[in-house]
Design goal:
The structure is a homodimer. Chain A is an alpha+beta fold. Chain A folds into 2 domains: 2-94, Pseudouridine synthase I, catalytic domain, N-terminal subdomain (Alpha-Beta Plaits), CATH 3.30.70.580; 105-246, 2-Layer Sandwich (Alpha-Beta Plaits), CATH 3.30.70.660. Chain A contains 5 helices and 10 strands; from the N terminus they run E-H-E-E-H-E-E-E-H-E-E-E-H-H-E. Chain A has helices at 27-39, 75-80, 137-147, 197-209, 215-222, and strands at 2-10, 46-47, 56-66, 87-94, 105-115, 129-130, 149-152, 167-178, 183-190, 239-246. In chain A, strands 1, 2, 3, 4, 5, 6, 7, 8, 9 and 10 form a 10-stranded mixed β-sheet that branches. Chain A is globular and about 55 Å long. In chain A, 39% of the residues are buried. Chains A and B meet through strand 4 of A and strand 4 of B.
Chain lengths: 249, 249
């Protein structure tokens, strides 16, 4: 058995998320179907993380045990030939037997994209949240700075998750303006993210940017004493899993 | 009656082109439906040019006679509220009575986008042609230079058109590399374009870039003595009507 790591990009628009479900199109379902054709048997993959319905990925990762060796340099093209055009495998490599796409992940990066043009740009509409108008980026950066570091992020998770440990390290939140300031990208890197944490933090930072929330209220939220400062959860389609980093690299 | 010019962007993926047709979704059909709601009567618009099924636009233009005045600064938002999300009106202005979106157009700009990444980028797949591999941009630029200027472009039109005069002026063809050379954009400006002319020229230039056609064969094609040098017609989804320029501006 050959433990294999694949790197996957997808347009999440038409999927009910990454994780396989009965009777709903999922990225995992499409990948396992394609791998099943290649290996002529059922293959189960382990995703680095679940992404919600509508969330995109440029650097999702998944691992699986291959029953026989296919040259990794040929693997992406072989899998892509069996996938719909909105899922593209961008790389494959053999990894140590004890590698696990989820547990071996050391760091993840997400982006949230805001379309800042007055009228929404049609070719960005599936991949960004349209948000024209004034935003105080300095205030957003101050609030973002307060959130970075190692904290208990319990207040920044959506209900429906039941992880025991809600402590995470946010290495950075960068606000990057692109294309003549018409796009604002919020780029997050962290040790891991709680359920909907990026979307909740993004919604919170947008409220700060609009002057509807003070940075110190965000800090209070982090301490669990001001839950109303958290959110709202911004829509899924602006979110993209940019990368998953592994220790062994 | 108030002659009104609107500027329109659209994702052409789900439309059978700009021009209205019975029993097929068209951009013109959607616009006329929305305008009919606003003006409470049937409105016919004149498009600056037809775009084929699947072709996109960032700067399409259309004019129509409004039966009463709606403040042009409010018009885009009003129309957009009645349009599907893949069509967005970006501007409106009142124009002289003798203005005609098609006949008054002095110049048009089109882009054709190539995704040069090894594996197709999922979020560009609807708006670019995936074309990895070697391309000799110098050779393409030489051939492009031969095509610019005022010529009879009869050889560079698809059958099915019946314009009397096939003389056009191509002001420029610029090959622009973007995003770390992973995108190649061919940007065309001309007095007007024959049916499928941009897609035929793009296909021809790609063959030059691949070393399958010499620049002087392109020149011979222009003189009508080498029709096999023309094309192929590249797919619609890489093409975008970028702008329509008017004299009165």
């Amino acid at each position: 058995m050959f433990n294999t790591l694949i790197r996957i990009s997808y347009d999440g628009t038409n999927y009910s998320g990454f994780q396989i479900q009965a009777n709903a199109p999922t990225v995992q379902g499409e990948l396992e179907r394609a791998l099943g054709v290649i290996y002529k048997q059922e293959i189960r993959i382990i995703g680095a993380g679940r992404t919600d319905a509508g969330v995109h990925a440029l650097g999702q990762a998944a691992s699986y045990f291959a029953p026989f060796r296919v040259a990794v340099e040929n693997l992406p093209q072989a899998i892509n030939g069996l996938l719909p055009s909105d899922i593209v495998v961008k790389g494959a490599e053999e990894v140590p037997e004890d590698f696990h796409a989820r547990f071996s992940a050391e760091r993840k990066a997400y982006s949230y994209t805001l379309d800042r043009a007055i009228y929404p740009r049609v070719m960005k509409r599936l991949y960004s949240l349209h948000l024209p108008g004034q935003l105080d980026l300095d205030a957003m950066r101050i609030a973002a700075e307060l959130l970075t570091g190692t904290h208990d992020f319990e207040a920044f998770q959506a209900s429906g998750s039941n992880v025991a440990n809600t402590k995470r390290t946010l290495y950075s939140i960068d606000l990057i303006e692109k294309q003549y300031d018409q796009v604002l990208s919020l780029y997050y890197e962290g040790s891991g993210f709680l359920y909907r944490m990026v979307r909740l933090i993004t919604g919170t930072l947008i409220r700060v940017g609009k002057g509807k929330l003070e940075a110190d209220q965000v800090e209070a939220a982090l301490l669990g004493i001001n839950p109303s400062a958290v959110g709202p959860t911004v829509p899924a389609h602006g979110l993209c899993l940019e990368n998953v980093f592994y220790r062994y690299e």
